[in-house]
Amino acid sequence: AIERTLSIIKPDAVAKNVIGQITSRFEAAGLKVVAAKLVQLSRAEAEQFYGVHRARPFFKDLVDFMLSGPVMIQVLEGEDAIAKNRDLMGATDPKKAAPGTIRADFADSIDANAVHGSDAPETAAAEVAFFFAGLNVYSR
Ligand code: CMP
Hints:
Layout: E1 2-9, H1 11-15, H2 19-28, E2 32-39, H3 43-49, H4 59-66, E3 71-79, H5 81-89, H6 102-106, E4 115-117, H7 121-131
The structure holds adenosine-3',5'-cyclic-monophosphate.
Adenosine-3',5'-cyclic-monophosphate is lined by residues 53, 58, 62, 92, 110-111, 113, 116.
């Protein structure tokens, strides 16, 4: 089915100047960018976005990292977009990510892991709505 998923190109990848290289991989896989913005998150936004991880030991480091520079937030649309994006990203820990995946090629550590992608249809809908008003998502 045609799905939408939320992608975040994290501060490490923005700093490495690979927004375009990462976005090209989405496009080459048939995913379309239907919304996008480059933003510096506030602490409140990062804490709310990652709220499910609030009790985890890595929460503070994760939030601090996400505030370390601007992030490129995109909505990707296409056939099986959620799973397709997760395949393109590779495993959360770049040491475990398959060769040729975004994290294998661009990530440095489990925190500085280049990209975030929604993990399921329910989280995708919530994450897209968290960052984009409906009228700013241009289905195509
Ligand atoms: P992301 O997909 O953005 O979702 C939560 C993030 O927490 C994850 O990518 C990692 O960057 C970060 N993180 C740090 N440590 C861990 C861990 N042990 N397990 C899962 N995620 C972690």
